[in-house]
Amino acid sequence: MVKTLPKVDVVTVGVGWTGGIIAAECTKAGLKVVGLERGQERGTEDFSMVHDEYRYAIRYELMQNLSKETITFRNNRKMPALPMRQMGSFLLGEGLGGSGTHWNGQTWRFLPYDFQIKTMTEKKYGPNKLSNDYILQDWGLTYDQLEPYFDKFEKTAGISGENNNPHWGERSSDYPTPPMKKTHILKKFESAATKLGYHPFMMPSANLSEPYTNPDGAQINACQYCGFCERFGCEYGAKTSPEVTVVPTARKTGKFDVRFHANVVEVLKSGNKVTGVRYVDTLTGEEFIQPAEVVVLTSYVFNNTKLLMVSKIGEQYNPDTGKGTLGRNYCYQILPGATGFFDDQYNTFMGAGALGMAIDDFNGDSFDHSNLDFIHGGNISITQTGSRPIASNVALPDTPTWGAEFKKQSIHNFTRTLSVGAQGASISHKENYLSLDGTYKDAYGVPLLQLTYNFTKQDIALHKFISEKSGEIMKEMGAKTVVNRGAIDQYDIVPYQTTHNTGGTVMSLTPEEGVVNNYLQHWDAENLFVVGAGNFAHNGGYNPTGTVGALAYRAAEGVIKYSKTSGSLV
């Protein structure tokens, strides 16, 4: 029997960066918030023995249990979609903090070009730069409109960086803390990029260069450069994450209740409003209804989309007709680059998740695309994240993947190889989308989300171009052998690539173009907000977290406004 609980002002589905920001801002404004997190509670004290590569990086201690819920995947509509049985090209976090616990810490602002990509592309290159198969659309707000929220997120997170990149948007203030250490490896990249006429700068990092107290009073410690960031929680409390910042801020108001092992399976709707959510206690099997004045979906891209679909809120995208927006605009990323083999040894085993130098000379529209068969680009960088022994086995091409020669090269190259790579932008395509699977269900009887995705001609051309540029930088760095990453063809859901999935619940200026407005308020349900990288109309040349954080602060402002006035915010 389903038990109905007392009504609250706001309920969030997920307590990661977006859920934590919504909770912090709304509770400070006096609203009562319940956060439903299907994973467990955790914090800095739980990561004191975190330097276990096998447990965390190989066996995915902090990730979603795919035996309970996963996605199905196919490259195109003619193929059968099959379940992802173990973590592959992306890693879905679970538990307090979500993916914000196991991230590397790169904290970027998407470029002004990203937010007005259709307008700016057509103005410069005409309306036919890309074929009609691509879905090119502006986001429904500009960089300048979002800038104050970027600033707020960076101050909450204490981001370490330097404002000397000529290609990004104007800032209202400098980074809260100075950039991280400029190591010997980063200096080699800086020298080579400068000689080639580019503009290198230190990467903005949530691995903090010095202790910092944010505006809400949360203390973040200084990075120890231990090299255990991505796929790990930080044992020092030095990698800014939700459980050391926004979640404590919300809790200290006395108006925030987090319920763990609470898996939301449905958003309840009546007329043009939602009334709450239905969730299952994953330990006892009990079902509950949590009524709320406002529901905010703050789980990962896939789950936000899935919940809207199973709850029949919004029109699902139909690739045959082009109608519907829910599930449309799914994008991923490409990872072009080059590896250099050196005679000298480097301290590659030391580092931090976002310790790096980068250039944006080939990102966005900072270079001329007139004679190129693609748009956008990627942030090219070298990162010193800390090579770990199990997963770091670099060998020259044509080396056997096992045996004596493989072992010899792995040991020799462990401290003698460096890589320059990029996060390449991804443009929405009409055949890349999310839908509900008609065959497979999760452990709670809910249909799995189905991913239909493949690399496009745009992806393939951009990958080749950026890999060549990366190889030129690596050659200038003095590598004796440079190996560019091979050309991409068909997307495969293994091996790991990035956890930078976007789209499915895109924002827009009109209901016909997207799922939510630019406060992330659902077009079909005025008291429902959907927050995350699913709101992106395309994916850019950076990781999405900084932009997601900014959007979450704007959505929080929207929720607070709605709680006072009701109705549409735009």
UniProtKB/TrEMBL annotation:
One Pfam family hit: GMC_oxred_N
Gene3D superfamilies: FAD/NAD(P)-binding domain (3.50.50.60)
GO molecular function: flavin adenine dinucleotide binding; oxidoreductase activity, acting on CH-OH group of donors
Ranges where the Glucose-methanol-choline oxidoreductase N-terminal domain occurs: 218-329
Keyword flag Plastid: no
Leader sequence segment: none
Residue ranges of domain Glucose-methanol-choline oxidoreductase C-terminal in the record: 429-552
Keywords in alphabetical order: FAD, Flavoprotein, Oxidoreductase
Entry's family note: Belongs to the GMC oxidoreductase family.
Protein name per UniProt: GMC family oxidoreductase
Protein source organism: Paenisporosarcina quisquiliarum
